[in-house]
Specification:
Strand content: 15-25%
Helix content: 25-40%
Structural class: alpha+beta
CATH topology of one domain: Nucleotidyltransferase, domain 5
Largest sheet: 7 strands, mixed
Radius of gyration: 23 Å
CATH class of one domain: Alpha Beta
CATH architecture of one domain: 2-Layer Sandwich
Length: 520
């Protein structure tokens, strides 16, 4: 019997990847091309997405992955795509890209301010329908286009997300899915479809939305041109994928209501599956459509956790980086030293990411408080442990907010992405949350979820729930230490008090925030 192979194309923040899996969810080959998003020097905060250059990089990655796997083009049964969320592409009537931005684009600062001033109450009204605020949404960026590039704005025929763009390049068909389109703030959580009235309420065009289809739906086939560019076979089914967070969560088994995950990468995302009626009156949490039809996800984001660890390693870990050499892991050496530090890290208080306040989203200036001049109580190992513990404490507090909102508490947390490779950190997370933590064998799950969508599209799998039951395999589990939890709870209270005062310094202009949403 011939094995079927599935191609996942992942357009991430820092790179594009092509990953090939077999029909049982085993990774066969992977190729990656790094990319950068360039600012337009005319517009502060801008971060353009280079559709031509990045498509060439993705095409190269696809060819490399196929060659690495030793497959012919015809062996690929189906292809799907996933991507960073919030980023979108505008097309003209002929389906050509005329403008595109990356997720980190923040050019629309004054537009956010003006929308809030001119349409008071609109952000809260749209949040109730979409689960999104203006902070990362498409509406302010489209308003920016109307003001600053009116010739582009008038030519827009359709918009789509980056995962949609990959599929459009492959098939010539422009369509969107709920999980990624939902991050625009122009998409209904309950109807799972675009919300043209969101644009009308702001006095803008409401005729720019493509069809919305569920992940796992075949939308077209690889065109002759795309086949020539990528090395795929013309006629290969092209299947709708989804947003990276939601499709990655599905790949690690977070597919039923109440299921919970912490995705520990550059940002830490804490997600819990919720029913379609869940709404946060505080506007602290983000709510997104899941790739699983009928479910949404309540999401809290911890900012720059992975970047903070990299900053610490690069700034203070020269000794460990030298000892690790080119093929070693300086993080592991730092963690080995940190593991000997007492729980609570001698009271050091890291101030980096706040808990999620989506409607008023900014962070204090990066700081380390309550340091001792005793090097045994404030040295490199102590601070490294304090950073790990603080990430878990902030995640625990974010999760508690979601549990209160949903009225449900899970029986475990699935911990995935880069940070979950650390057993030490996994144990800290279990103790800080008071919940068992499990780590999957496949920790970088985004591409796997995308492959699941491809498998569903061509009938190899029924849906994401059935695929998770078949494909997900667990690596390790960690039980909480409740004596440690008591220490983390007390540390969390001290941190919250200190953080509020640090945010006050930002408010007074004394310090500079680590990050602030547009319009604040």
């Amino acid at each position: 019997m011939t094995t079927s192979y599935l191609l996942a194309v992942d357009a991430g923040t820092g790179s594009g990847r092509a990953v090939i899996f077999d029909e049982n969810g085993n990774q066969i080959a992977s190729a990656q091309q790094e990319w950068w998003h360039k600012a337009d020097p005319r517009f502060p905060g801008s971060m353009d997405f280079d559709v031509e250059g990045n498509w060439a990089l993705l095409s190269r990655a696809v060819r490399k992955a196929i060659a690495q796997a030793g497959l012919s083009a015809g062996d690929i049964r189906a292809v799907s795509a996933t991507s960073m969320r919030e980023a979108f592409v505008a097309y003209d009537r002929d389906g050509r890209e005329i403008w595109a931005c990356a997720n980190v684009d923040s050019r629309a600062n004054s537009e956010v301010c003006d929308l809030k001033r001119d349409f008071p109450g609109l952000e809260r009204e749209l949040y109730a329908e979409t689960g999104q605020t203006f902070a990362l949404g498409a509406l302010p960026r489209l308003f920016w286009l109307k003001r600053n590039m009116p010739e582009v704005y008038e030519r827009i025929d359709r918009i789509g997300m980056l995962s949609d763009w990959v599929l459009a390049r492959l098939s010539g068909v422009i369509a969107s899915d709920p999980s990624n389109a939902g991050t625009t703030g122009l998409y209904s959580l309950t109807r799972r479809d675009w919300l043209p009235e969101a644009m009308r309420k702001a006095g803008m065009r409401d005729d720019i939305f493509p069809p919305s289809v569920e992940p796992g739906t075949v939308i077209g086939r690889v065109t002759a041109q795309a086949a020539e560019e990528t090395g795929l076979a013309a006629g290969t089914p092209v299947v709708m994928g989804g947003g990276d967070c939601q499709i990655g969560a599905a790949a690690i088994g977070v597919v039923n209501e109440g299921d919970c995950a912490v995705l520990g990468g550059t940002f830490w995302q804490q997600v819990v599956n919720v029913g379609p009626s869940v709404f946060d009156p505080s506007m602290d949490l983000r709510i997104n459509p899941h790739v699983v039809t009928g479910l949404n996800q309540a999401e809290a984001i911890s900012f720059f956790v992975g970047l903070v660890m990299r900053w610490f390693r690069d700034s203070f870990g020269a000794e460990e980086m030298l000892a690790a050499g080119s093929g070693g892991d300086a993080y592991q050496l730092l963690e080995e030293k940190a593991a000997a530090v007492p729980v609570g890290a001698h009271g050091v208080i890291p101030v980096f990411s706040d808990v999620m306040h989506y409607g008023n989203w900014y962070h204090a200036a990066p700081s380390l408080l309550n340091l001792s001049i005793d090097p045994e109580k404030s040295g490199k190992a102590v601070i490294f442990r304090a950073l790990q513990e603080n990430a878990a404490i902030v995640a625990a507090r974010n999760l508690e907010a979601i549990f209160r909102l949903s009225g449900k508490r899970p029986d475990k947390i699935v911990f995935a992405a880069g940070a979950s490779k650390s057993a030490h950190w996994s144990q800290i997370l279990a103790s800080a949350t008071g919940l068992p933590v499990v780590t999957p064998v496949v920790k970088e799950a985004t591409a796997l979820g995308c492959a699941a969508a491809a498998a569903i599209g061509v009938g190899l799998r029924r849906d994401f729930v059935e695929t998770a039951a078949s494909w997900v395999r667990w690596d390790r589990s960690f039980e909480p230490d409740f004596s440690h939890k008591a220490i983390y709870d007390e540390a969390g209270e001290r941190w919250a008090r200190a953080y509020a005062l640090q945010r006050q310094l930002v408010d007074e202009g004394v310090t500079t925030p680590m990050w602030k949403a547009p319009g604040l």
